[in-house]
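Progress report, Aim 2. The chain analyzed during this reporting quarter is listed below.
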Amino acid sequence: MTRKIFTGLSSEAYEHPFDRKALASLKKMPGVSLLLKKINEYGIDRLLRLQSLGSDIRITPNNFPQLHQALVETCQILDVASLPELYLFQGTGHIETYAVGVEKPIIGINLDGMEWLGADELLYVLGHEVAHIKSQHMIYHQMAIVMPTLKNLLSSTTLGVGGLVAGGMELGLYNWRMMAKFTADRAGLLACQDISVATTALMKAGGLPQEYLTTTVVEDFLAQAREFASNNFDHMDQVTKILSYGEYRLSWVVMRAGELLKWIDSGEYDALIQPENIKVPEEKEGWNFLTSW
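Predicted structure tokens for the chain:
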């Protein structure tokens, strides 16, 4: 399959409105600028990078060429000029990925992700992580990752930040992180350019292996996603958000699939992939599009 390659693609073109609204609210919260300052003082960006360098296996064209090629193609499709480093980390029994690094971004995928996902599904999952980088929201994305540790560090200070974090700021951060997934999922769909691929990738991320992905199972999942998407998240009460979005073990894959379906049904996805926004890939020696795992 030859995929369309976007030219001059801005993250704003596919940004989910919930993402935009949640980030604007987060930036206005008291204590956010102070927390960003403390993150810089603690050298969190460098520490997270060193953690990957010291623990995970860096992917190269030589050791895992198909995985490396999937990232190359993803970045080419989404018009990301600088290729992030890609790392492979130990299996956990379910698919996990991450993106860290403000100055020098790093993407990680675990062994389960490499083994469970087909070549096309890898484009979707890597596109999701590349989107966090392309949107230039990594500082806030990174803040959410280290929030549990930061809470312990800051609660012992006399700056009063601990109380702020325990209040609305933590909720605002976790709410934005969830809303940002909607934007990242849209980028993942733009990378793989097939809602069926995005659907099976999300189902696998939710813990369902390939052998269970029958036509009936997928169809029922999509029906459930459409049903869930009919809910009005914008008016969900605060307690529900605290209990839901702050729970990192919940994948929310049904909700995320529902939001992708709403985007397609709205016609915005089709409008974005029109010829004026894309170019035909050139045939280059050494460049092979992934078509199978």
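Residues 222 and 257 are 7 Å apart (CA to CA). Confidence is low (pLDDT under 50) at residues 280-293. These observations will guide the mutagenesis work planned for the next reporting period.
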